[in-house]
């Protein structure tokens, strides 16, 4: 065997192998590499979009939390104002009720005072009649002298 022939045969075989690889295998490998690169690029883009969306939703969540805290503070303030208003209304209602009871008590006292005064007048009139009867030593007819007795009551 000739070494030159062997080297030339190996070179031709190597050249055919390279040609076969470049023409047939290489395009499939390039397509697979490009597909893989595209898949990786798409994944990176999706990851970046996801990261941006995560940041945006995190900001929205923070805004929603701050909004909720603001509304909660506003509701608490309204509740405190309403509680204060209810306390004031209860105070004024109690004061009004107290005033009404005080006025009713005063009216009742005045009525009792008027009744006592009338009873006292009647008793004084009866005493005056009894005194006059003893003085005159005769009985005074209360029915016959009703006008006289009424005028004595008014004077007392």
Question: How would you describe this structure to a colleague?
Answer:
- By secondary structure, this protein is an all-alpha fold.
- It has one domain.
- Helix 1 packs across helix 2.
- The chain is rod-shaped, with a radius of gyration of 60 Å.
- The termini are far apart.
Distance between the termini: 172 Å
What is the percentage of strand-forming residues? under 5%
The SSE order reads HH
What's the β-strand tally?
0
How would you briefly describe this protein structure?
The protein is mainly alpha-helical. The chain has two helices and no strands. It has one domain.
Label this structure with key terms:
rod-shaped; 156 residues; 92% helix; 2 helices
List the topology elements.
Blueprint: H1 3-136, H2 146-155
Helix pairs in contact: 1-2
